[in-house]
Amino acid sequence: MNKRWLFTHGTEVVLLGALGCLPLAINTPYALGLLTLLTIYGVCLIGLDVTVGYLGQINLAQAAFLGLGAYAASLSVTHFGLGIVAALGFSFVSTFLVGGLLAFPALRLDGPQFALATLSFSAITTTTLNEMEWLTQGAQGLHVTRPDLWGWQFTAAGFYWMCLAILALVWLTMRNLLNSQWGRAFEALRDSPIATDAIGVGTYRHKIAGFAIGSALGGLAGGLYAFNFQYLQPSSFGYDLMIILLLGVVLGGRKNLWGAVVGAALIVLLPNLLSNPVVFRSFALIGVIIALLSGLEKYRQQTLRSFQALAPILAMVILAVGALLIHNTEDWRKAIFALMLFAVVVGLPEGLMGFATRRLAQLFHIDADSLPPSLPLEKVLRPQTQSPQRLLEIQQLKHHFGGVKALNDISLHVMTGQIHGLIGPNGSGKSTLVNLITGLYSPSGGTIRFRGQPLPLGSLYKIAHSGIARTFQNLQLFSELSALENVMLALRDHYRVPLALLLLGLGKQQQTQAQAKALALLEWVGIHPLAQQRAKDLPYGAQRLLEIARALACHPALLILDEPAAGLAHPDITRLVEVIRHIRQCGITIILIEHHMDVVSELCDVVTVLDGGKIIASGTPEAIKREPAVVNAYLGVSC
């Protein structure tokens, strides 16, 4: 039993055990009510964190889903006589469906637009619940009797233990889900939706699934909320609760199950902390200390600008001074929440538990997870034996940006097993051509055939599944994922364990095998010692090689490299050339866009030269160097 296992799973057991034992020591109705509300909000915030933490979207609809789940559970008991288990199941399923339906239009938006869409949904939901008096009793409120559990009547402690059991179940299943391919896909969507589609994972379906799951957990929490208070009013699920829930996720820590529970504890306890001057002042002082430690550390490491380091400290100092001067904190509640939210968002984006986890890991020297040995490369990237034929055929391809003809009547073919170079001056249409082949753009005219069949135009996802992979001129890595996780995500054909079994934790062997395959590819490109570093922390040359390894994990028949040597130093270019040679030896056909003519001359069998959206020359590297049109348009001097 290693130290890391104790640090992660051992502390989970201690937390849940301690929460389970609290009613034995604290038996007052008020304290039990707070504990029960903590578990309910814990379930709700785990769901909210899927959207806010993993998908990276500001979701203002979770309070509405909490309300919908509460009314769904209440009405199913009142009108249909369902038991508590069936009522909670109805809350979960109904909000899952509503969340999925809302996700279809809302997730086509990003950033502020998505936030406004979910805010509008919340406003409509509250208004609808208020106006449908024939069903919800409107502003008068809806009374509901808490059903028994198979004949067993709940006491206050008994209902708390049931809520805690549900929180534990949600914790375990979501940990299994978020540590799997699904969790990596959710995180990848936040960093680069384009690259997610380009490796064939699928942006839209994962967005919808993530939002629907998070909404369903909000609905499940709503059912528990209804049976806890046994009285509902639409106004309870409005703007104030929306902000409190968002505050809980941000304060506790995004992408962190511990953060959801700690955030729930904070938003449950904060009103009581604010009402007690001594506790509130102590809380404010602790905030100042945390802001100082975090700000000074990051400023010293030059990971934050001066404003990001000093602004949270100033906000917490203002809060501490206010704690000394303000007599009635309830009047300043929203201002206090705003200061706390500002301090955390600016200075502690990983939240309290993200900060604490990192510091504790350093303090107790908790190493990263041990990795399995890498597989032999031939078991990961099997050599492709192909007879010489036209793998890719392009006929009279056109693409217009308004009145600008970026490509005009391009016709070429790429033979299997070749490295086909694509060169030309900036703006000649090279990247546009690649974007058309890979589905990022839809052509204005012409045809593209791959393996003798028309390509599904305008779909990165479908083209990735047809056997074409690519890298990008401007790096499109999943920056918050490790190098290993970047490659594991692209091994899409490896993951075959059904979702139901995955939630039960039965996908660990599959995960280990994926790690071994990904390590083989990282070892092949020479960056396996950096496997557990985040992609954004890698040296630039390693990032370029990582993007190639990720593309190879898709098992492509055609690999398109868009200026892979751009910005590389000479040793990195030498390594890159060696890697590309090895890729060719595996039988993978390559289209290489490159400005380094020495790289093109050394690697390419055929070179096509573009200028002004047209082909001006095609042939061997030596032949095109002597073409007058190429010399005039691109080389500037005969080689």
Q: Keywords, please?
A:
639 residues, alpha/beta, six-stranded mixed sheet, four-stranded antiparallel sheet, elongated
Task: Bin the helical content.
Answer: 55-70%
Distance between the termini: 64 Å
User: Mean pLDDT, rounded to whole units?
Assistant: 87
Helix tally?
Answer: 27
Strand content: 5-15%
Shape: elongated
Assembly type of the chains comes to: single chain
Number of strands: 12
Strand order of the largest sheet: 8-9-10-5-11-12
Main sheet makeup: 6 strands, mixed
- Radius of gyration, in angstroms, nearest whole number: 28 Å
Uncertain runs are none
Structural class assignment: alpha/beta
Describe the structure.
This protein has about 650 residues and is of the alpha/beta class. The protein has 27 helices and 12 strands. It has helices spanning about 5-25, 30-55, 60-80, 85-105, 110-130, 135, 155-180, 180-190, 195-200, 205-230, 240-250, 255-275, 275-300, 305-325, 335-345, 350-365, 375-380, 430-435, 460-465, 485-490, 500-505, 510-525, 540-550, 570-585, 595-605, 620-625, 630-635, and strands at about 140-145, 230, 390-400, 405-415, 420-425, 445-450, 455, 470, 560, 590-595, 605-610, 615-620. The longest helix is centred in the middle third of the chain and has 27 residues, at about 205-230. The chain is elongated.
